[in-house]
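Sequence only, no structure available. Ideas?
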Amino acid sequence: MARKEYAFYPGCSSQLKASAANYLTSTNSMCRTLDIQLTEIPDWNCCGASISYTGASELKRHTLNARNFALAEKHLPGKDVVATCAACWLNARESKERLDRDREFMARANQALKAAGLEYKGQAPVKHMVEVLIEDFGYEELGRPVKKPLEGLKFAGYVGCQTNRPFGIAGESFENPMYLDRLVETLGAEPVKDYEHKVTCCGGALAFSEPDKSQKQIRDIVESAYDHGADMIVTPCPLCQTNVEVYQGEINRKQGTKLNMPVTYYSQLMTVAYGGTPEEAGLDGHVIAPTRLQELAQKR
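Reply:
I predicted one. Tokens follow.
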């Protein structure tokens, strides 16, 4: 039996062959080392992170998450629901708070779920994987399996906005959350402690509608990392990871810059520090290769 077991919600981007598949790969590797069992919620559906922009009702959006909760309660009773995607976690947390606070609203959602033979009872807590690591394990425990400290590497901890507001991580500042910095230190690397863009939005929602504004924010995020001597950016958000990594090339073409900053996940750092291979860390799934991390992972 695993040390900890959770009802896992992969989300659309982090599932196999999706845009953040390397996030799932490294998360699975990290969890094997920590003896965490992530049991996927059967027949889960999209969290509805974007449908509110298309005019969907509040009831429809929250009922999507209520269905996932009800499936977790039915098939994985007593297990916390865990998401790795910041948008999924944010939407799930918002839905849970609305459903649990407003019993009339919950009754309406359950009326819709009744057609599928489901009922949401409000029993399953919802966590981001970062909360699992910090609250259920702690930094000292996370440091125990380190076999290959990330010495000589400097990381800018880019938290972004979705894991920071309005809920945030317990005990952390909204303006200057330190959990990525502490995790980087736990793994033997150096964090950029005065990285002023760690909670700046990456402009993910503007990428298509107002690309110039989005790319201005991305350029600021990346250039600040360079200014502080970072080798890489590390983030807990797949949208931030994709947005900040992918658009550097377009910014270079438009503005004559030479941005080439790798953007990694905390789970990739942990997998490498725990002795994992580049493949186990999903380091082969980047547009901008995190070369120095790959080189460290290849060392035996």
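The domain at 4-129 is CATH 1.20.1050.140 (Glutathione S-transferase Yfyf (Class Pi); Chain A, domain 2).
Hope that gets you unstuck.
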